[in-house]
Amino acid sequence: MATILTYSTLDINEEQKRAFTQALHHELRPLFIGNPSVIFRSLDPQYASEQAKNTITVTVLRPPAVPLEQKRNIARIVQESAQLHFGLTTDVHTAIYFWYHDDPDVGRSGVFAA
Predict the structure, then answer these.
(1) What is the CATH number of the domain that holds 106?
(2) Separation in Å, CA 100 to CA 5, 34, 52
(3) What domain count does the chain have?
(4) Distance (Å, rounded) from C-alpha 11 to C-alpha 97?
(5) How many whole angstroms separate alpha carbon 42 and alpha carbon 7?
(6) Tens of pLDDT along 16-43?
(7) Which among 19, 59, 65, 82 would be 20 to 30 A from 97, CA to CA?
(8) What is the pLDDT of residues 41-51, one digit of tens each?
(9) Residue 17 is part of which domain span?
């Protein structure tokens, strides 16, 4: 299982967000056990630094021990999906971060596992 948090300063509408989120979910699904949750949030570009404009930042939350090849596939899929959905009018940059946790470091349903 994984949660994919996506933040973007791109000027896009709700239909584009939905299409990108669905495509990302569909493409990333085979790489994870269970369905990944994909969350997309837009950020107002006027409050972003110049380097953050036209950028999609993706944080992948999942347990440790992700093989390097899987990380490369995730990075490729995110870039290709972003370019396909948003790259027709702008150069889209993606930044991908992997945030790991061990099972004892997780709380579920109000109970901390440790």
Answers:
(1) 3.30.429.10
(2) 13, 17, 24
(3) 1
(4) 22
(5) 6
(6) 889 989 999 899 888 887 788 899 999 8
(7) 19
(8) 998 888 888 88
(9) 3-112
